Amino acid sequence: MIRRGTALLSLAALLGAALTALPGGRAAADEVEQVRNGGFDTTADSWWTSNVTAGLSGGRLCADVPGGTVNRWDSAVGQDAITLVKGSTYRFSFAASGVPEGHAVRAIVGLGVTPYDTWYEAAPVLGEPGDAYSYTFTSPVDSTQGQVAFQVGGSADPWRFCLDDVSLLGGVPPEVYEPDTGPRVRVNQVAYLPAGPKNATLVTDATAKLPWRLRDAAGATVAHGWSVPRGLDVSSGQNVHSIDFGAYRGRGTGFTLVADGETSRPFDIGTAAYEQLRLDAVKYYYPQRSGIAIRDDLRPGYGRAAGHVGAAPNQGDTDVPCQPGVCDYRLDVSGGWYDAGDHGKYVVNGGIATWELLSTYERSLVARTGSPDKLGDGTLALPESGNGVPDILDEARWELDFLLKMQVPDGQPLAGMAHHKVHDEQWTGLPLLPGDDPQKRELHAPTTTATLNLAATAAQAARLYRPYDKAFAAKALTAARKAWAAALAHPGVYADPDDGVGGGTYDDGNATDEFYWAAAELYLTTGEKQFSDHVLDSPVHTADIFVPYGFDWSRTAAAGRLDLALVPNRLPGRDKVRGSVVRGADTYLATLTAQPYGMPYAPDGNRYDWGSTHQVLNNAVVIATAYDLTGASKYRDGAVQSMDYVLGRNALNISYVTGYGEVNSHHQHSRWYAHQLDPNLPDPPAGTLAGGANSSIQDPYAQSRLQGCVGQFCYIDDIQSWSTNENAVNWNAALTRMASFVADQAQP
Prior knowledge:
The protein is α+β, with helices and mostly antiparallel strands.
């Protein structure tokens, strides 16, 4: 989310002319122009500039933009006093060019006074003079203090920006966004296991069964059968059929499925893709690291300077003060992972992400199909590779060290608790490399939930790192015990839901589940009665926690329940714990069977949640754990089939994993994976999971395209859509867990 203000200079001062507001003219009976003097024929009246040298040239406004700026808003052109009516639809259009070509401009409609809310934004990459751009959006507010602005800073080199025919026309019909969903046969575009389930979904108006054919890369038919009509799919609003070609056990690449005159996108039948995805899903984390230079030899195309180490203009995380009024000390909280597409670091989201990476490794030690060597030392091309420690533990430790640094020091009020988060004082824009972030960094107040995330993950780390680093394991357990005691002493200290400037809030007003999770991890590591008593006495212990949305950073009880079920221990009544996981898996299997797109996810009211793709995967984790507990093939097949939705078998016919599938998400919201805005920056690395459909479409870009969307269609692959298309460390942790599980099922 971007919310940023700019210091503005008057264009009158630069051009030596008095600016006069001209009344907006009517373009049509119901259409009203809100921009004054958008044609620049004889004057620049009504327009201001900031940090550019501007003037009229050939009936255009041209601005010489200085080089060496960091942020888009460091240089800008705009107009204030724009009137907007809530619920009215506007067409925002302009002609623009840049010399040299290839510069991106951030064109916004927003609030012209603090806090400078953005209501709509576009980010075209400029080309030839006269290139025209047009966008339609619905205003979310009533305002007479709106602003149209073109932010052109952030370039190392100077360039020339020219603008003409600027219009904000109100009263136009809403633009109907129709995504290109490709062929109506929807498949897992990556791979099916030879000995696993193979299902597809056909979008069709037909009510009777239809023939299908499976073709190999040469076009030969290798299997055939009939579809099963499923009627209306509420998750997409489509009429669909199901296709099951699981009886085919051949291997190969370039298969396609043909039905109803349509040919699917290609896919493999084999195991190699999942072995690679197992690695790529974890390799995602190294370029997310804060406080270390990313080596291009380890991640070609992703090398960059270290972020937040105090090298100008970056203020760094080595000596960070608290927000005013929170504390009077400073901490070194360097390291860790950037949480998502911004530069914030959050204990509650980092905690659940670390747990799932550690649990991926722990599962490999205790499950019947586990393969600990697959993520062992040397598998992930990390700076630590070759140190005798499994690479996945090396990666998780980068975050664990940060989590430990977030603990309130001894002698301070709330000693032993954990600060909730650290991030910039104000929101920054896109693109912005971590090392170029000029914002002041601040520690935010400690919370009970953050403290228990620290207790849980540090306790888990204590048992998993003990064979490799006894001193670190002991340090982690000491921190976990201290955090547990601090949380018991302060059980109701919660994040401020309004503390969302410069970073996300991650507010959660109930720590019952975090207490349960932390007690479970401490018990599994120590075997002590005080922790088993808390587990057994918790109302969460016998509650039905396997809900439609699955587990997440704010719903952590499942983390404790799954580990109690899978990790060997002597908890009284453990058979009931294991049975509860199996019952939860049965619920998700029933959901999967009922969904024509075959995913274990059916949110209440068909309201897809933020990060729905990882919720699908976390529900699949429950099913996979039931297989690890029982060995029943229905759970193995259900967990494997759950990957289909994420990898292309969905209403949009898109793989939500970058680099996987013929059509895949690759414009995720990120300040440094921003190729869509800056050709010199990369797309996200292969194996990055997009958040996916989100019915609430909170960001202006999604709101301009997806109003009235149904379930699965509430997604757009654009860098500006932070509510549907961000990446995040906890989302990729779910992908890591499931990719590793599926790869482990590769035996014939």
